[in-house]
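User: I'll paste a sequence; please echo it back and then give the predicted structure.

Assistant: Echoing your sequence first, then the prediction.
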Amino acid sequence: MEAVRVRRVLCTFGLLMAVGASVAGCGEEKKTPEYVGAGEVCDGLFKGSLAKTIESVTGATSFAWTNPNAMDRVADALEAGYESGHRWAQGDTLCRIAPEGVGREGRAGIAFSMYAPQDVGDLRLPAGGKLYTMGKQSEATPTSAALYFECVSSRFEGSKNRPMRILGNFGRPRGHEQNLSDSRELNLTVLHAASLAVAKKLQCENNGGLPEKPVLEPRTAN
């Protein structure tokens, strides 16, 4: 089971690095700026105080512009996965955070997919990992975070009896950890903001059980 779960997470994580030239091409056609500030990455998802969080996570203040239609793609991919009836499904990348002047290894990213029921309750964590109470399950390491939540929405027929199971993944480059605890909580803060935005986009009841502000309370594995 662990190998299957890891494979699903890695599949989602692979989405973080998949988009490149096509996004740049769209940017050139629209004559958008080549680089933007932290508050403008991910279509302005991290405006306000969260911009400082992105800067802390990446160690940068200038980032490559990315396609602003990613939220629609994520919503469409999750809807298609749900309607397929499969227990889990690959989704799409919401955001690629690429600091100016760094290569692929220096990028951060956020992606969403649909997880299988048995993935929640599997409390085995990678090195440096820690569990938190937010969502159905949440976990973070110094360089990543995962957040599981369920969505009941009028957009998805039958979701009251079979909620959509959504997994958000955030990954960032090594080298900017303040300390283990701070790094984990920063990662989960970034992922919470993105997950809440997805829940609102999908019109999930009660925002999929996610709070308006991140709850960074550690959970004890039993």
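The chain has a mean pLDDT of 84. The chain is about 35% helix and 20% strand.
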